[in-house]
Amino acid sequence: MALKNVIGIDHAVVMVKDLDKAAENYRQLGFTVSPRGTHSAHMGTGNYTIMFDPDYMELLGVLAATEQNAPARAFLDRQGEGIERIAFTAVDSAAGAEEIRARGLAPIGPTDFERPVTLPDGAVSAAKFRTFMWPTAEAPGGVRIFACQHKTRETVWIPELMQHANAARRIKQTLIATPEPAQEAAHLGRLIDRAPKTEADGAVTVPSGGDRADFVYLMLDQLGKRYPGVPLTGLSERGGAALVLVSGDLAATGKALGSAAVRSGDAICVPPAKANGTLLAFVAG
């Protein structure tokens, strides 16, 4: 039976070494970036969000070393910048944690935290969350998974932050490189009770649930064949990741990306070296 308290992909977390520089980089790529947020002290992290509908990207940086962010720091040391984890939307994080506990997995959390938010009218509010994580070792393809319950959606999905010069609308796919696509997809399928499907090129897709983005596990050379001409320098053979983003206007995408754009088939891409360790591929919506 599918998990009742967890639905599809909520957001992708891009770990970065210099948070403010990363935010400026993404602004230069035509994204509208939120004001900087600072999480609760026990989290030790800060972030910028890039809001879509119904999902988003998060640029995450470590501000102070804490027990909570030890895995994120280990990722930066081991792999450098890039997608470190993927969040699902949690209907109820406490109930979701108990669901995976009943399946023999020890959840991390639920953990409550918040960050201050400056609203468009200048008022200051807070974005509040309750999350739980699958065990750190349960990271299909080297990418951790967790679930995020939004207690204050109105302070996260702010309309002014959802309009992007590059016409990005939502995440269509999360592509994760691994030498063993079928094995890693089966692993994720067991964790979220979803059935993998093998694609024509040997990649394996796992639906995340609802109308949300799919996970796709594939070898690094398969990723290269999907996006010929795009340099993959910096992507790890296990855990290197890409986001396929739906664009509402590819002409606007190309204009906003400028010299960072690499056209590849029907997609306009940004190589990982120019997007903080993450391959971005924009496709028509």
From TrEMBL:
Residues annotated as domain VOC: 8-150
Q: What is the superkingdom listed in this entry's lineage?
A: Bacteria
Q: Which InterPro entries match?
A: Glyas_Bleomycin-R_OHBP_Dase, Glyoxalase-like_dom, VOC_core
Against PANTHER family, the record matches this protein to: BLL2707 PROTEIN, GLYOXALASE-LIKE DOMAIN-CONTAINING PROTEIN
Name this polypeptide is given: VOC family protein
Biological source species: Bradyrhizobium diversitatis
